[in-house]
């Protein structure tokens, strides 16, 4: 039976770069030959969630949300727009970071759909955060003597938003690779505005857990941290704030290794993509054979 991958993401009417990581990761997976078909779909751009299954010929479809956390979009909007018969969020049996996959039928197109949890809560995302730190410092062994800040949006409307940030910060902290690891936020405590106060290390890598670079990662966070008074004038990497060198990485979702997390989600749902995962890891700088 042929199999297809559909990557669903938010997109934006206002930021033309919002969808770029989605297309880039889809191209990487397409080139790896993992699926007979690879499609992208968006909430705020075309092609839309509602029509994408009608563009797929395969009878078996793996749908992977390129979202950071479980919540309104992954639990309500995407299943509704894909018309997944019998969807019940309880079948994910998740406390906010455990969603794996559910197999359902999209009745109007007669396809079997393996609906996966968001990429942002997969364990492999911790590796992408570390790789993002390596990319911004240019040091494949970065960690000793460095602090790491994993930064999320944070919102009282979705408690799971913060759970994903704390989850990965704790996993990386337990690995012992970095001298210090903290979870910080834009809109809730502890806030990224005072980033230097949370670390004793002289160097701190700041990795926003966002899918794409946009207003928050390119304007709000750099200004909030004091890297610049006006994002339009740019800033240095690293930039010194209150005596601490801040290595600001930008959105983790732009890291090429994100394609591996998408494949891992599909593999967990039963897709036969293990050979492709090895090829993608080799191409994007990830560890092969984990």
From TrEMBL:
Q: Name one GO molecular function term.
A: metal ion binding
Q: Pfam families under this entry?
A: CbiX (PF01903)
User: Is Isomerase tagged as a keyword?
Assistant: no
Q: Which UniProt keywords apply?
A: Cobalamin biosynthesis, Cobalt, Lyase, Metal-binding
- Please list the GO biological process terms of this entry: cobalamin biosynthetic process
Keyword Plastid listed? The answer is no
Recorded protein name is CbiX/SirB N-terminal domain-containing protein
């Amino acid at each position: 039976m042929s199999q297809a991958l559909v990557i669903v993401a938010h997109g934006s009417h206002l930021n033309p770069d919002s969808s770029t990581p989605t297309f880039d990761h889809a191209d990487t997976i397409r080139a790896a030959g993992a699926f007979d078909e690879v499609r992208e779909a968006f909430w705020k751009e075309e092609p839309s969630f509602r029509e994408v299954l009608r563009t797929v010929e395969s009878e078996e479809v793996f749908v992977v949300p390129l979202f950071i956390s479980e919540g309104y979009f992954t639990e309500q909007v995407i299943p509704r727009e894909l018309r997944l018969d019998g969807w019940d969020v309880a079948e994910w049996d998740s406390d906010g970071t455990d969603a794996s996959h559910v197999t359902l039928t999209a009745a109007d197109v007669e396809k079997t759909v393996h609906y996966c949890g968001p990429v942002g809560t997969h364990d492999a995302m911790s590796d992408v955060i570390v790789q993002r730190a390596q990319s911004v410092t240019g040091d494949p062994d970065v960690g000793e003597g460095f602090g790491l800040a994993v930064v999320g949006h944070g919102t009282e409307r979705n408690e799971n938003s913060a759970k994903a940030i704390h989850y990965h910060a704790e996993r990386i902290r337990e690995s012992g690779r970095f001298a210090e690891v903290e979870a910080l936020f834009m809109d809730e405590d502890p806030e990224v505005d005072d980033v230097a106060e949370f670390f004793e290390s002289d160097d701190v890598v700041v990795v926003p857990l966002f899918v794409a670079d946009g207003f928050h990662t390119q304007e709000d966070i750099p200004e909030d941290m004091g890297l610049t008074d006006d994002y339009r004038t740019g800033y240095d990497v690293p930039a010194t704030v209150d005596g601490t060198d801040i290595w600001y990485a930008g959105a983790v979702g732009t890291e090429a290794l994100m394609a591996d997390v998408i494949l891992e989600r599909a593999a967990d749902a039963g897709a036969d993509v293990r050979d492709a995962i090895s090829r993608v890891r080799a191409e994007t700088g990830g560890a092969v054979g984990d």
